[in-house]
Write a structure and sequence with these properties.
Protein name: Tryptophan-rich sensory protein
Pfam family, one: DUF6463
Number of helices: 6
Organism: Streptosporangium brasiliense
Shape: elongated
Strand content: under 5%
InterPro entries: DUF6463
Keywords: Membrane, Transmembrane, Transmembrane helix
Helix content: 55-70%
Amino acid sequence: MILIAVAHTAVFARLAPWSSWLAGDLRNRAADSDSVATFWALPGGFVVVLVLLGLLVARAGRQGQRVPGYVGWVILAWAALAVSLIGPSGFLLAVIPAGLLIAANITAGRHPRGPS
């Protein structure tokens, strides 16, 4: 998830009109539709949340904790909805962390941890 967010930022950060954003174009509605779309693709979108979620999942894994199964299913549903709305895109990559989280949950259910 962290890799997806970083890659997404790397692709769109070059397109961002940072100076006009900092000058207030988003606040005063002077920004054009491309500028607004780029804003929602970067700091206004899922990038920050996806990094935080990736960090939380990595931390849970390092501590031997399980992430609830619904996390993977919700990520999968979110990506499927996005792909159905906009077609094939980077949202297809969400299948990877979603599938890993779902598989980890199913595997953990088959092999429950006993008391340590």
